[in-house]
Structure formats: C-alpha cells, structure tokens
Design a protein that fits this description.
Distance between the termini: 13 Å
Number of helices: 6
Helix content: 40-55%
Shape: globular
Order of helices and strands: EHEHHEHEHEH
Radius of gyration: 14 Å
Number of strands: 5
CATH superfamily: P-loop containing nucleotide triphosphate hydrolases
CATH topology: Rossmann fold
Strand order of the largest sheet: 2-3-1-4-5
CATH class: Alpha Beta
Number of domains: 1
Strand content: 15-25%
C-alpha cells in the first residue's frame, strides 16, 4: 500500500534537504511546497492562503496515491488543524530550529503532538536512513 509521508517543520529547518535525501532510499514521488506554490502562482501566506495551499498539497497527493505510488511531501503544515486535514500516513517533524525568519509563521506554528519521528539535527543523510528504517519497519508490522 502506498504512503503519504509528510516532512514538516519551520521554514529553514531542513525539510527539503531531508526529502531529497529520503528519495534515494524510497520509491516515491516528491512534492515540495515552494514548487507547488510557484506552479499555482500563489504566494499568499494569509490564513486562507495557507489553507488553500494545504488543500492543494492534499489534492496533489491524492492523484499520486491513486497511481499506487508513495509520495514524500515537504511543507510547513503549521497547525494541528492543517495536519489533521492533510492526513499523512507517516509524519516527520524536522525540529532543528526554534524560530524561522518569518515571524508570522513563528507565531502560528504549533509543535505537533503526534508524529512518527522527530528530527533533532541537520544531518539529512543520517536522518533519511532513520526515516526509511521506520517507514519500512511500519510496513512489516
């Protein structure tokens, strides 16, 4: 069964770097929030703009999952509400910084209460192997 893998955290935490490293181990398509925003020409970071982006990411994932492919998604996903609506099968919290350069994001960001793995240092090669091991272990159970 294919999985929707969310790599979330503050801007600048290392989500994209980790996603790229994970793709070396996992047969999956990759969705990067900045690239998706660029395609949509939508750089609105208001609450409604963020909700629209979360829905856009979820919809793009659905079409990939329907092809029976895994999908790795890296985006901030800043609130418990956006994470609940996104419904990831596996969540990686990249918790390597306490504040981003975007004060509005810092103010709204809610640390997740539920996640599968918490990344605590900027070492994508190390953490991508750990994440892959956890995803693989989950499949075997």
């Amino acid at each position: 069964m294919s999985k929707k893998i969310l790599i979330m955290g503050l801007p600048g935490a290392g989500k994209t770097t980790l996603a790229k490293a994970l793709l070396k181990y996992l047969d999956a398509e990759w969705l990067n929030a900045d690239k998706v925003r660029q395609e949509a020409k939508d750089w609105d970071f208001s609450p409604s703009g963020r909700a629209r982006q979360a829905k856009r990411m979820k919809d793009k994932c659905k079409s990939i999952l329907e092809k029976n492919k895994n999908v790795v998604v890296d985006f901030v996903c800043p609130t418990s509400k956006t994470r609940d609506e996104f419904k990831a099968d596996f969540t990686v919290w990249v918790d390597t910084i306490k504040k981003s350069r975007f004060e509005d994001t810092n103010l709204m960001f809610e640390p997740p209460k539920k996640f599968n793995i918490r990344v605590s240092s900027k070492n994508a090669e190390f953490w991508s192997k750990k994440v892959f091991e956890e995803i693989t272990k989950e499949k075997d159970e």
